[in-house]
Amino acid sequence: MIKNVKRRRNLALTVTACLSVSVLALSGCAQASGSQPTAGGDTATKLSILVTTENTQVPAELKKLADKQCSTQSQSLPLSIEQAPSASIQEKIQLLAGQDALPVMFAAGNSYIDKGGDLQKNGQILDVEGTFKDLGILDQITPSALSTLKKLYTDTVPSLPFQYNIEGIWYNKKIFDANNIAVPTTWSELTAASEKLKKAGVTPITASGQTGWTISRWIGAYLFRSLGQNAMLDVKEGRAKLTDAKYVEAAKAIQDLAKAGYFPEGVSGIDYDTANNQFLSGQAAMMYMGSWLLAKVNDPAQNKIGDAAQFMPFPEVSGGKGKIDEYPANAGSPTSVNPKMYGPKVGDWIKCIATNYGADSLQNSGTFSGFKVNGTVDAVPPITADIQKRIDASTSSVLWFEALFNAKATQDAKDYAAAFLTGSTSAQDYMSLLQKDLDTAH
Amino acid sequence: MNSVLGNKKAIVVLLGPALLVFVGVMVIPVVWSFAYSLYTGNVIRGFTFVGFDNFVRLFNDDEAHEAFFFTLKYSVVVTAAQIVLGYALALLYVFVLKKSSTFVRTMVFFPVVLPTVAVSLLFSRFFQFAPQEGPINSLLKFLGADTIDFMATGPGSFLVLVLMDLWRSQGFYAVLLYAGLIDIPDEILDSARVDGAKGGKLLRHIILPMSLPVLLSSVVFSFNSSLKVFDSVLALTRGGPGNDTTPLNLFMYKTSFLYSDYGYGSTIAILITVLCLVVTLFIFRSSRRDLTKD
């Protein structure tokens, strides 16, 4: 009897130990890191693309290309687009990457595809610059887009530049003219204009508290004007901290705009589309946004103010090191290529996209991409031509507030933006929180 | 029966499949999660063993502490309100509406079957401040009071969240407690009435003690589901403003999937599991106390 009990106890202990050891071993070895990409063959049976649901422009353009200019490529490698909400796409990409099942192109977050990022380290990101060089099409990426990508991704090019955007302040010319306001070129002119508009009963500035970056980008833009184009790089590389007096001062300057009542009441409840609609229906005089708004500005169904929608650079800050023509620029939502799926057929597709996408995007939606515009584009809307001129005239660009942040700091910058603007979180606390995220990154 | 349970093969056949399923869906994931908590990393990067570092980090993490206390506050408020309101509704069904309670019961239960996202949209529109005022702010304005931007402040968001969860789950607890109340034999109630027990006295000395088991189950259900609140917070406030309405579950989700730190996320999951276990044991333990000995 005692023997039986002992035997049973031993058996139970052995089973428990085996289970624990195997679970620990399995979990520890769930993904061997650093696996190298295999040499490219034609492993892809379709040009599978995973982008966010919110990204309506790129899928639409690619479908048009598949039907027309890239129909030959589409016949040998059919286009297959999958979309997932931006709130959950990174989770999906992580799981697919863990199973080595990423599609040909995918929209992974900046921190994953940057040099030293998880996907980059794991050999799951194609070197776009090298590939374009091999294909003989490197000149199809505009120099400004290439420079922006390298600045963002530590001298690497892990993403296709489906878009090229500059950011600044959109303003309603009709409202400005009606109130005798000239386009502000300095911060004090901007605050004076806002005061004048407020007194005239116009909402000076709109933003979306639900989409926090429409607020946090104001801080970034101010910092680039006051501290120069290395303001955020200095933070990333530890030469400065967001809690330094000059950084907090920038945050305070933005908070002061809200304190003075220049943003709409209830800004924290306003979503992205509502903010855009407020500007495009003449309910607000200004809005910080990128050139991607052109798609809406050039659509009469969405733009109720017509030609009054104009674009200006973020004003200079007196005594600041930044220049007014240094626009924050980006190459749209990142779209990387899976090297394990790369082969001659995918290469053909990329060649076709690189040579046709730029002109097609400009023609169809009046928006810019980082690809060269080949051929002539008919009847470019005046506002699109104006922004094109600004991009061409700009000698250098800057990134944006969260561009060099890690995932947690990026998320917190957005999540706390509305609380910061309404004053529930002080400027000092907001910047301290973000600095803490950067310091304690795991 | 004795002969069946005395047969070891019969025990294996009867318990084996259920035990296998239990081990597969409960024990292994819990052990697996515990194993993850000893590592740092994610499925792309791979995992590095860090021992108990994640637990030390949890102990010193201000954000985790805030999420922990928010979870407790939310659970206590929601559980108390769910049980009190649920019990009041159940009493209404049994003793006031009696056999004609079916319609009211169905209407009160209806929100339980609605999707959380739809209910969240409904409530955010209901308490909306901008760009258009929702019905609540219109009512405040009509009454001459100041309008309130509920979702801009922590307390305002908390209030809307609690009201929404109460509206959404009230019908369930009312039906659960109703089932307990109709089980009280009529003879006992009648004899109590004959002895002069009415209203409050009847409730305190007869109905409440007789419905204690189902009341206790409701408390356990309610507290455990409140401790694990996730979908309603994500859909209504996304944990904001800032992290003012971030419970542990949402904090765990963000840590694991947005910040790609599965190890620390699993450590938070363990904290939630332990919390649920402690609360359940505490409720059961306090219910075992022999009231006649006081």
Structure description:
- The complex is a heterodimer of chains A (442) and B (294).
- In chain A, the strands form two sheets. In chain A, strands 4, 5, 6, 7 and 8 form a five-stranded mixed β-sheet that branches.
- Chain A contains 20 helices and nine strands.
- The longest helix of chain A is centred in the N-terminal third of the chain and has 27 residues.
- Chain A is 48% helix and 9% strand.
- Chain A folds into two domains: 161 residues, D-Maltodextrin-Binding Protein, domain 2, CATH 3.40.190.10; 205 residues, 3-Layer(aba) Sandwich (D-Maltodextrin-Binding Protein, domain 2), CATH 3.40.190.10.
- Chain A is an alpha/beta fold and 442 residues long.
- Chain B has a single domain, classed as MetI-like fold (Orthogonal Bundle), CATH 1.10.3720.
- In chain B, α4 crosses α8.
- The two termini of chain B are 40 Å apart.
- The model of chain B has no long low-confidence stretch (mean pLDDT 90).
- At the A-B interface, α1, α4, α6, α18 and α19 of A face α2, β1, β2 and α13 of B.
Topology, element by element:
The complex is a heterodimer of chains A (442) and B (294).
Chain A: H1 2-28, E1 47-52, H2 57-67, H3 71-76, E2 79-84, H4 86-98, E3 105-106, H5 110-113, H6 118-121, H7 128-135, H8 143-152, E4 165-172, H9 173-178, H10 187-199, E5 203-206, H11 213-227, H12 231-236, H13 245-259, H14 272-280, E6 284-290, H15 294-297, E7 309-312, E8 329-330, E9 336-337, H16 344-365, H17 382-393, H18 407-415, H19 417-422, H20 427-439
Parallel strand pairs in A: 1-2, 1-3, 5-6
Antiparallel strand pairs in A: 3-9, 4-6, 4-7, 4-8
Chain B: H1 2-6, H2 8-36, E1 39-42, E2 46-49, H3 53-60, H4 62-97, H5 102-109, H6 116-126, H7 135-142, H8 154-181, H9 186-194, H10 199-210, H11 212-227, H12 231-236, H13 248-258, H14 262-287
Antiparallel strand pairs in B: 1-2
Helix pairs in contact in B: 2-14, 3-14, 4-8, 4-11, 5-8, 8-11, 11-14, 13-14
